[in-house]
Design brief:
Number of helices: 3
Number of strands: 9
Shape: globular
CATH superfamily: 2,3-Dihydroxybiphenyl 1,2-Dioxygenase, domain 1
Number of domains: 1
Structural class: alpha+beta
Largest sheet: 9 strands, mixed
Helix content: 10-25%
Length: 159
């Protein structure tokens, strides 16, 4: 099953947890950290997360979470077929999880990711400086919590 992913940057995590808990019918979060909270709901099917990770408040990025490598490959093939700019990341740590993912940017500049979570992680993930050092293009990450900068997102091979 694919699940919509929405990540919202917030100013006050506790107030936001109270608000979204009420919004989601008092559903308990799947993950709660000092700077991050995530719900994995089935109705509606959404991975909804909030954090205080440096971005200005509002929608940080949107994505689609998949369960299998095959689903991830299918999603990435859609990007390639549409000739969208893509940055692939494998085994990356972000949002207290290790994942394989691909990033693109929509025409409005909104960061979109497709990802498969491999396992939980004890840390939030790479800082922007660490991500910059690890990036093959050696470029800074964008405003999205773990997204590479738009300038790092390159056209996938059309082979």
């Amino acid at each position: 099953m694919k699940r919509m992913h929405i990540h919202v940057a917030v100013e006050d995590l506790n107030d936001s947890i109270r608000f979204y808990r009420a919004m989601f019918g008092n559903a308990e979060p799947a993950v709660v950290k000092a700077d991050y909270c995530k719900w994995e709901l089935t109705d509606p099917a959404v991975n909804f997360s909030i954090s205080q990770r440096g971005a200005k408040p509002g929608v940080d990025h949107i994505g689609i979470q998949v369960e299998t490598d095959t689903e991830l490959a299918e999603m990435n093939a859609r990007f390639a077929a549409a000739r969208l700019p893509v940055q692939v990341q494998t085994g990356t740590t972000c949002c207290y999880a290790r994942s394989d993912k691909a990033w693109t940017v929509d025409p409005q500049g909104v960061a979109w990711e497709t990802f498969r979570t491999l396992e939980s992680a004890p840390v939030y993930g790479h800082s922007r400086d660490e991500a910059m050092a690890q990036s093959t293009a050696h470029s800074q990450t964008s405003g999205a919590c773990c997204a590479p900068a738009q300038s790092v997102i390159t056209m996938r091979s059309r082979a």
